[in-house]
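Follow-up to my earlier ticket, as requested here are the two runs.
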Amino acid sequence: MNTPAVSLEQVLMARQSIDGRIIDVDEPVVKQVIFRLGHLWLAFPGDRIREILTDCPVFSLPGCPPTLEGVINVRGDIESVLHLGQVLGVETSPPSAKSRILLVQGHSLRTGVRVDSVEDVIDVVQGSIRQPPHTLPERWRPVVQGIVEFGGHPVTILDVEYLFEHYRSGLL
């Protein structure tokens, strides 16, 4: 005996006629700034990004570690620029027309972070953020908050607070 196929719309209309109301539940969303660093797709939580800068000259400082690219002048404020590739141990592309500097604000540090390109700023449903896989390298596990899909690519969400705190203490 074949039962006829019923669409979701038909089920909802039938349910509404029984209940008289349908409750729409919104899941919380979090803004993410998705960027490329070498071959990786990464993201920082949007509430940590103050500004995305283009075409900003970075002035190197003699004697600084390779993880500190230099400093920039942002409307009279001098900001440091971390070389995120060096901090994470990832090979990056040389600065190009697509390169951007993200002004990132953490609780313990405010700095610029050069990335190869900014791909998008999106709202991500909190429930769609997956736990990091157990196959992550040991060094990366604490700095990764989760994984989301964007444009067919897995995007690794980085924990700004962990990254900055451990960078300041010399552990990264």
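Run two:
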Amino acid sequence: MLPAIATLPLWSIIGLFSICAVVIGFAGTRLATIALKLAERTGMGQIIAGAVFVGMSTSLPGSVLSVTTAWQGHTDLAIGNALGGIAAQTTFLAIADFLYRKGNLEHAAASATGLAQATLLVSMLALPLLAYAGPDWTILHIHPVSILLFILYGFGLSLLAEIRHQPMWRPRKTDLTDEDAKEDDADYHPESTLRLWAEFLAFAAITAVAGYTIGESGLAIVDKTGISETAVGTFLTAIATSLPELVSAIAAVRMGAVNLAVGDIIGGNAFDVLFLAASDFAYRDGSIYAAFSPQHLFTIALVILMTGILLLGMLNRERRGLANIGWESVSILCLYGMSIFYLSG
């Protein structure tokens, strides 16, 4: 069944889509600022705050979109949006690197928790591939891998907290290295904790509503133009619903909170893998992993490669490179550009 938005003219649908994208972008900026304050207030640290507060909340639009479209049976849009969002957000980190003029962002944001986040992401991305290639087991139409993804994510967050509090190794400190916030750091923000949480939840709710509307608009665009759901999901809706990650990462970099920027993107990516699990719960015609197409497999392999390159860049810690960004950012930008050419062809 097509959404009611599909009855509107194409220009109205595109206008509504654009308005929601702007709303999501604005809310993402506010979420980044509030998350940084909550990180200092709770002593959680920028990396984990990026994953828990910003990563989850800025991923709400994409999560709502994937779940609601999967519920309606539009698996190509649901899967494409989830995987395309991870590819787009990883590319956003390269854009943030370009705007960080002091040097290479991955050099400045070196931390054990950042590396652990990226490793968790790669591990989570491997599970949908195993579900696709392995037996099509389901429990009440839900694949066991979907349950395992939630368990792995929770286990990963507990490991992140442990690694931050009792790291077994530390990166070599340089003049560009940014220290993550500690529990005893001063809190200079006058707002009460209750007010911060209230604002945080309010802006998160706004992005969720806008994300649902973008999903309905995306389905209407597919109906009006004939563009495939996979292409619309992988690029159009994925980029639009991922705007909070871009805006919040740029805002964090400008505030000098480079660890928050990295935690936002990588943490958001790990949370985005849960889109597939949540979509599997919502999809009522079997396992959603059985609906993977060659384009979806290409995208998931792409994001694994991009994350691997990011990991190598974080370990190598090049101080400056082409256009004052690291070789890993250049590689990620090139890979994303090539994926647009391939998937749009």
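The only thing I checked on run two: The domain at 9-166+194-343 is CATH 1.20.1420.30 (A middle domain of Talin 1). Let me know what else you need.
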